[in-house]
Structure formats: structure tokens, C-alpha cells
């Protein structure tokens, strides 16, 4: 019994080590760049104290914000579906009795999901179900094969943070990209003067020897290259936030009863940003939790047919009542879901009346 257990432990350690290689690589690059910038540039080459102190101050402020955002992205665990989305064992056994009978399985899922805030479905208008996690998938959630769980509002699994970018850490991920880009641009902008001087025959720096030149030149080119990649990635995710889409939804739009709609959750640019960053604008630059909602249910665009309908009769057998409270603007709506069969004291049931308030 000991041998299999020890083998599993060794395999687990190896897998976690391999998964951490991209993170270790980034931290090593960061450690070397700190040494090159602080020691070789600011302390060795910049002779003016009036210049070196501001260089160091600004660099360390950006570095702290970058590391803060990066580690929050890494260590924030992706949220999974609430317990009331999981099929009880007896229901799951009934569901698996005859895997060939798809209509029967669909009926079981409909009965189970009648009190759940489900707004998106499969291409055949069935309930989205994960047989690995044994749960009805909440809207915008997907199963991550790396994390081995269904993740709320999953965007993608990022190897550079060894974590799922999702509802739990999406703000931190965007800030990580933003501060990474800011740091690369700042380093490139403050080192370019010295890189030019190394190649200028009229300056003394060209004929001076020393390894510091190699460090500063490599630092400039690496910062410039990372700036390009981070800019493109950050611009893409800012676009997704403005449209209230995830990376997965940009390739495969969410399916509502009336069809797929890539703008199904688009509430307008301002409110889309608030859904990720919160209402307190002063807190947006800091990697602290200011997101809105609970990640299970989301308000939908008014143009989606569900926002204009009072019943989900095709899916919930005319048992679930869905009311929609329209705000003054025509771009979005807040979804209010209630059911006569639900008890107000049921602690396991989601609070449908407290969906995202924008």
C-alpha cells in the first residue's frame, strides 16, 4: 500500500513543479531585471542623485503593485458552483441508469434545475450539465481540465499564473497585465538613453568596459519585447471587459433559448467595467475584491428574448416564474428570479432577489 501512495505523491509533486515552471520563469526574469535596473543602472550608471532617487521610487511603486496583482492572481482560488447546483447521489444514480435515454436524462435535469437561475443552455436547449463534477453548470461557467472543477465565469486557464482566470481573479489578472506593461514601458524608457550612449562613438561609455552594458542592453530589449506582448494581451482583455465577454464566449457565444448571442451579457461599457472592477473608482487600481455579484447569475441585455419573456415554459415546464425589473436605461436589465415553491428560509438556495445591482 505504501508504494502506490508514495508514487502518487511523487507524481503529484512532479506535476505541480511542471505547472509552476512558467511562474518560476517570470519570477527569475523579474529578479534579474531588478538586479540589472537597480544595481547596474540606478546605483552604478546614474550619477545624479536627483535622477536616481525618482527612478528608484517610481520603479519600486510599480513593482509592488505588479507583484501584489500577480500573486493575487496566482493564489486566488477559482470559485466553483454552489452546493445547490450539485446533483444528489440518488438523483445522479437515476440520471445514469440509462445513458442512452437522452430525453429521460434531459427531463431529470429540467426537474432538478427548475429553481436554479439558469439563463444559458446547450445547442439543443438542454440544461448544461457536467458529468465529471455532477453539477448543473451555472451561467458562464465551464469545466477546467487542469483545475479539475467547474469554474464560475471562466475566461481561460493561464499557465503564466498557473491558475484559472475567472470570476474570482479577473480584476487581478487585468491589473497584473497593466502593471506589467507599465513596468516594461518605464524600464525601456529610462534605459534607452544609456543604450544609445553605448553605441555613440562621441561618448566615453562606448569605450568603457564592463558587464553592466550587457545587462542594461538586454534589459532594454527584453522590456521592449514584453511591452509589445503585454500591450496586445491587455488591449484584448480591455475590449472583452467593455463588451462583458470572456475569452471562451468570444469564440463560442452563450446560447439562450432563442439562439446564441455574443452580446447577451453586454450592459453597456460603463456597467460592464463596474461588474469586474466595482463601483468605487478609487479602488480600481488596487488588487482588492471590489467585483459585483456572486458569479452564479448575471443580468442580461434587454435585447435578449428572455429579458422580454415572463416564462421559461420550454425548459422549466411552466413552473418557474421569471420577472424582469427594467432600469431607466435601455441597454441593460436586472434579472429578478423567484419561485413560489422556494422557502425564504432555505439557506442553500441562491438569493435570486440579490442579483448584480449595477
UniProtKB/TrEMBL annotation:
User: What's the main place this protein lives?
Assistant: membrane
Task: Tell me the first and last residues of the signal peptide.
Answer: none
Q: Which residues form the Palmitoyltransferase DHHC domain?
A: 125-251
Which keywords does this Swiss-Prot/TrEMBL entry list? Acyltransferase, Membrane, Transferase, Transmembrane, Transmembrane helix
Catalysed reactions listed for this entry: L-cysteinyl-[protein] + hexadecanoyl-CoA = S-hexadecanoyl-L-cysteinyl-[protein] + CoA
Task: Relay the domain remarks.
Answer: The DHHC domain is required for palmitoyltransferase activity.
InterPro entries (alphabetical):
Palmitoyltrfase_DHHC, PFA4/ZDH16/20/ERF2-like
**Record's protein name:** Palmitoyltransferase
Transmembrane residue ranges: 21-40, 52-71, 172-196, 216-239
Which EC numbers characterise this protein's activity in its record?
Answer: 2.3.1.225
Topology class, membrane:
Multi-pass membrane protein
- Provide the Gene Ontology terms for cellular component: membrane
Name the enzyme group at the top EC level: transferase
Q: What does the similarity note say?
A: Belongs to the DHHC palmitoyltransferase family.
- Source lineage: Eukaryota, Metazoa, Ecdysozoa, Arthropoda, Hexapoda
Name where it's found. Membrane
One GO MF term attached to the UniProt entry: protein-cysteine S-palmitoyltransferase activity
Per its UniProt record, what Pfam families does this chain match?
A: DHHC (PF01529)
Amino acid at each position: 500500500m505504501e508504494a502506490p501512495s508514495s508514487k502518487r505523491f511523487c507524481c503529484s509533486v512532479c506535476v505541480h513543479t511542471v505547472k509552476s515552471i512558467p511562474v518560476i520563469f517570470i519570477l527569475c526574469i523579474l529578479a534579474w531585471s531588478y538586479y540589472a535596473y537597480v544595481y547596474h543602472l540606478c546605483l552604478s550608471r546614474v550619477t545624479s542623485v536627483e535622477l536616481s532617487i525618482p527612478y528608484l521610487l517610481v520603479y519600486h511603486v510599480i513593482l509592488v503593485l505588479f507583484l501584489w496583482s500577480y500573486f493575487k492572481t496566482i493564489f486566488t482560488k477559482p470559485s466553483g458552483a454552489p452546493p445547490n447546483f450539485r446533483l444528489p447521489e440518488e438523483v445522479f444514480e437515476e440520471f445514469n441508469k440509462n445513458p442512452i435515454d437522452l430525453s429521460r436524462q434531459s427531463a431529470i435535469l429540467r426537474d432538478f434545475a427548475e429553481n436554479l437561475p439558469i439563463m444559458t443552455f446547450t445547442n439543443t436547449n438542454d440544461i448544461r450539465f457536467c458529468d465529471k463534477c455532477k453539477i448543473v453548470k451555472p451561467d458562464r461557467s465551464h469545466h477546467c481540465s487542469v483545475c479539475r472543477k467547474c469554474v464560475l465565469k471562466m475566461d481561460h486557464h493561464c499557465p503564466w499564473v498557473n491558475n484559472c482566470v475567472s470570476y474570482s481573479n479577473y480584476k487581478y489578472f487585468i491589473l497584473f497585465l497593466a502593471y506589467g506593461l507599465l513596468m516594461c514601458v518605464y524600464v525601456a524608457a529610462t534605459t534607452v538613453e544609456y543604450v544609445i550612449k553605448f553605441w555613440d562613438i562621441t561618448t566615453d561609455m562606448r569605450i568603457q568596459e564592463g558587464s553592466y552594458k550587457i545587462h542594461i542592453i538586454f534589459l532594454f530589449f527584453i522590456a521592449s519585447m514584453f511591452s509589445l506582448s503585454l500591450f496586445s494581451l491587455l488591449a484584448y482583455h480591455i475590449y472583452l471587459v467593455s463588451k462583458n465577454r470572456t475569452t471562451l464566449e468570444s469564440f463560442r457565444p452563450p446560447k439562450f433559448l432563442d439562439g446564441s448571442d455574443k452580446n447577451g451579457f453586454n450592459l453597456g461599457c460603463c456597467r460592464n467595467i463596474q461588474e469586474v472592477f466595482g463601483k468605487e473608482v478609487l479602488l480600481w487600481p488596487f488588487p482588492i475584491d471590489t467585483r459585483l455579484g456572486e458569479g452564479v447569475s448575471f443580468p442580461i441585455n434587454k435585447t435578449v428574448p428572455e429579458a422580454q419573456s415572463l416564462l421559461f415554459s420550454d425548459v422549466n415546464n411552466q413552473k418557474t416564474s421569471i420577472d424582469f425589473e427594467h432600469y431607466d436605461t435601455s441597454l441593460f436589465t436586472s434579472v429578478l428570479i423567484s419561485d413560489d415553491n422556494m422557502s425564504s428560509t432555505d439557506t442553500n438556495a441562491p438569493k435570486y432577489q440579490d442579483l448584480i445591482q449595477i
